[in-house]
C-alpha cells in the first residue's frame, strides 16, 4: 500500500481490493486534494462521502494494468469536479477468463462499498474525506468498456452511470470476433504468426478452468498486472511491442477464437459453433441472434451484455469513432439500440472519422477538450449528483 501527494490537485493512494492465488489485486485512488470534510459535515450528512468513478483500462483483456493507457483528461476533469477517480487492475486472459474478470468487477464494488473507507482512514488519517458508496459510476476504454458493462450488469451497489469509450462487447456475434481473418483487419497491422504465441494458446495455456465450466482453476497462474513494453530505438523493430501479451487479442480475433478464451469454452469450441451459425444462416438479424444465443451455454450468458436484462441499466454514454477497426462502431450502435429499446437513458456519441484510441493522440486535448471531453465528464458528474 502506498500514498503520495503526486500533484497539487490530487492525492493518490494504492490499495489491494482482493487477493487471488496469494497475490493482491490493486486499485489506485485519485482523491481531489482540496476536498477535506469537517466533523460537522459528517454530522450533517451521516458521512463525508465523495462521489467516485471506477475506471477499467483497455488492452483487450489480455494486457495492461491500472496505469496503462491512462485517461488523464478524464481523471483531471473529475478531480476538479470533486469526484474521486479509481483505476483498478483485474485478472487477464489467459489463463483467466471472463468469469474471473467478472468476479473481480463484482468484488471491487463490494470492497469499495464496505471496506475502502476503513483503509482510507488508516492511510489518510489527516483527512476525513471518504468515498460515498451510493454515488459510484463506472467507465472503461476499449476492453475496459466491457468491464464497465459487466459492472452495470452485476455489480452491487449498481453504478449510477456508465461511460464506454469505444467499448468492446456491445455485440459479440459478429465477424470481428468469429471470422477467421486472412488479411490485415486491425488498424492496418500485419497478420500474426500463431506459432510465435504457442505458450498463450490453447491447450498449452489453459484458460483457468475445464472447458465449459465457469469455476476458477489455477488461480496462482493468473496475473492482473502486465505492463506495456516496447522495443527500444536501437532495436531492429523500434517501438514494436516487446510483450507478447500486447498482441494476444489481435491474434485471437485473427483466428476467430476470442470467445473461446473469454468464456473458457474450447472443447467444443464455442467460436466454431457460432461461426457456423453466422455463416450458414439465412435468417434475419433477430432470428439469427436468437439462434446464436441458444448455442451459448447458460452459464456463460452472464458475460454477454447484449443478453442482459437491460431495462435495469443506469444511464449510459457510449463514445465511438466511426472509423474504428479494432472495436467496430457496430458494437456501440447495437448496444445503444438495445438499451433504447429497454427504456434506458442512453446516448451514443459518434466521433466522425476517428480510429481506436483517438483520445490518446498527442493533440487530443486541443481537438476534443471543449467539444467532447468536457461533456463526457459533465455527464458523469450530473448523474452522480442526481443519484446521490
From TrEMBL:
Keywords recorded for this protein, A-Z: Hydrolase
Keyword set includes Zinc: no
This protein's record includes keyword Hydrolase: yes
Chain residue ranges for the region called Disordered: 202-221
GO MF annotation terms: hydrolase activity
All copies of domain Alpha/beta hydrolase fold-3, residue ranges: 53-187
InterPro entries reported for this sequence: AB_hydrolase_3, AB_hydrolase_fold, GDXG_lipolytic_enzyme
Coiled coil: none
Organism domain of life: Eukaryota
N-terminal signal peptide: none
Name recorded for this polypeptide: Alpha/beta-hydrolase
Organism classification: Eukaryota, Fungi, Dikarya, Basidiomycota, Agaricomycotina
Amino acid at each position: 500500500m502506498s500514498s503520495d501527494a503526486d500533484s497539487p490537485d490530487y492525492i493518490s493512494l494504492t490499495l489491494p481490493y482482493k487477493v487471488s492465488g496469494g497475490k493482491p489485486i490493486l486499485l489506485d485512488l485519485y482523491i481531489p486534494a482540496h476536498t477535506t470534510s469537517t466533523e460537522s459535515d459528517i454530522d450533517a450528512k451521516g458521512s463525508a462521502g465523495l462521489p467516485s468513478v471506477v475506471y477499467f483500462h483497455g488492452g483487450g483483456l489480455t494486457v495492461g494494468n491500472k496505469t496503462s493507457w491512462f485517461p488523464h483528461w478524464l481523471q483531471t476533469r473529475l478531480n476538479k469536479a470533486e469526484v474521486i477517480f479509481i483505476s483498478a487492475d483485474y485478472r487477464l486472459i489467459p489463463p483467466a477468463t471472463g468469469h474471473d474478470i467478472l468476479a473481480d468487477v463484482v468484488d471491487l464494488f463490494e470492497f469499495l462499498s464496505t471496506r475502502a473507507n476503513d483503509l482510507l482512514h488508516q492511510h489518510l488519517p489527516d483527512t476525513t474525506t471518504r468515498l460515498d458508496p451510493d454515488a459510484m459510476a463506472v467507465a472503461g476504454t476499449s476492453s475496459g468498456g466491457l468491464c464497465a458493462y459487466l459492472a452495470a450488469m452485476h455489480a452491487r451497489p449498481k453504478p449510477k452511470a456508465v461511460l464506454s469509450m469505444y467499448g468492446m462487447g456491445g455485440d459479440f456475434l459478429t465477424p470481428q470476433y468469429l471470422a477467421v481473418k486472412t488479411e490485415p483487419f486491425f488498424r492496418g497491422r500485419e497478420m500474426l504468426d500463431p506459432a510465435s504465441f504457442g505458450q498463450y494458446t490453447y491447450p498449452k495455456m489453459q484458460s483457468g478452468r475445464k472447458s465449459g465450466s465457469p469455476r476458477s482453476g489455477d488461480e496462482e497462474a493468473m496475473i492482473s498486472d502486465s505492463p506495456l513494453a516496447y522495443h527500444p530505438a536501437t532495436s531492429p523493430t523500434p517501438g514494436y511491442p516487446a510483450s507478447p501479451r500486447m498482441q494476444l487479442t489481435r491474434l485471437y480475433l485473427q483466428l476467430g477464437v476470442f470467445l473461446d478464451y473469454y468464456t473458457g469454452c474450447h472443447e467444443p469450441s464455442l467460436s466454431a459453433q457460432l461461426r457456423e451459425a453466422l455463416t450458414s444462416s439465412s435468417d434475419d438479424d433477430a432470428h439469427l441472434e436468437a439462434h446464436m444465443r441458444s448455442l451459448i451455454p447458460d452459464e456463460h450468458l452472464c458475460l454477454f451484455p447484449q443478453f442482459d436484462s437491460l431495462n435495469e441499466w443506469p444511464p449510459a454514454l457510449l463514445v465511438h469513432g466511426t472509423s474504428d477497426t479494432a472495436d467496430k462502431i457496430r458494437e456501440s450502435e447495437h448496444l445503444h439500440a438495445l438499451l433504447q429499446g429497454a427504456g434506458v437513458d442512453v446516448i451514443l456519441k459518434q466521433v466522425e472519422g476517428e480510429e481506436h484510441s483517438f483520445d490518446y493522440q498527442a493533440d487530443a486535448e486541443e481537438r476534443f477538450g471543449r467539444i467532447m471531453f468536457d461533456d463526457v465528464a459533465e455527464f458523469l458528474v450530473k448523474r452522480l449528483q442526481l443519484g446521490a
